[in-house]
Amino acid sequence: MYSGLLPQLVGVAPEKAIKLTVNDIVRGIGSRMSENGEITMSWEIIAGCSAGAAQVVFTNPLEITKIRLQVQGETKRQFLAEGKPFAEKTAVGIVKELGFRGLYKGAFACLSRDVPFSAIYFPTYANLKKYLFNFDPKDPSKRKNLESWELLVSGALAGMPAAYFTTPFDVIKTRLQVEKRPGDKIYKNIPHAFKTILKEEGASAFFKGGLARICRSSPQFGFTLASYELFQTYVPLNRFYADPSDVSSSPSSDFKQMTSDGKGNSIKMLTPSTVSNADTTSSVKYGITEAAKRFVNISLDFNPSLKDFNYNSYIDLQSKKKD
């Protein structure tokens, strides 16, 4: 029942990380390119497609290794029934056997599944939050935050249509990636697999396992998106970066406010007092130092006792110890 768990555990973190990050980046681009700053449905779909395409880098090696581990039990029974010796393979053994190119066998089929999945999932998730739970941080009359159970429900509901409607692509991908046994049908490519399955098994074969995919993907993505959104709430990484449109965070105002902390700890040389848009070097330095300052401020929020720390007194104390 738990065959193929190891590659799933190893690959799921980077897979979800790249998917969620790419989706957020493209959605941000879409929002900035819209007239009123509100992302359009076409940009939501583009963001989802981009996220699905990017994740295949991790998904395909993960999937082909997992599938081969999962069907290994059936192959073993067949070999033993025929009196043939059978050596079980580990995840590492399968990776070595396949090699780099082999790990990406069926990658186009994986792409054909993951791109439409994300194109359905992310817009559905965003609109469920908006229309089901009245979430819109840009509208003062609507909610700016959702409860964890509301995020979980939105993610789980969005996963249902995305999982079911992409089942045909998953069936074709699995048939292409599974290790062939004696007597098994050999599929050459996606069109050949589609025609063969349709001819020999009928259209219903493309939706075999559809309910199982819903039972897996729905809670999986519900917990993933809820965890991701809660992480962003409690660890606001955007606080580390200066907002160019925020006057209060401009170089001149921050420089005046942060020159000294009143305890002899000067940061006067860290941040340029003026930054020209044409001065790339200064802009980069300013961005880095602004991020550093925000990181320090968040650290102070978590550790208030550090606010009483005096660097000069610390240096004097260390010098006395050496003497």
Report on the architecture of this protein.
- With 323 residues, the protein is mainly alpha-helical.
- Helices cover 67% and strands 0% of the residues.
- It is built from 12 helices and no strands.
- The N and C termini lie far apart (67 Å).
- The relative contact order is 0.07.
- Mean pLDDT is 78; it is low at 239-261 and 265-278.
Properties at a glance:
mainly alpha, 12 helices, single chain, 0% strand, globular, 323 residues
Distance between the termini: 67 Å
In round numbers, the mean pLDDT is 78
Rg result: 27 Å
Strand content: under 5%
Give the low-pLDDT segments. Answer: 239-261, 265-278
Q: Structural class, judged by helices and strands?
A: mainly alpha
Q: What is the N-to-C succession of helices and strands?
A: HHHHHHHHHHHH
Percent of residues in helices = 55-70%
Number of strands: 0
Compose a concise summary of this entry.
This protein is globular. It is built from twelve helices and no strands. It has helices spanning 5-33, 41-70, 72-81, 91-103, 107-132, 148-165, 167-177, 190-201, 210-234, 251-258, 280-302, 311-322.
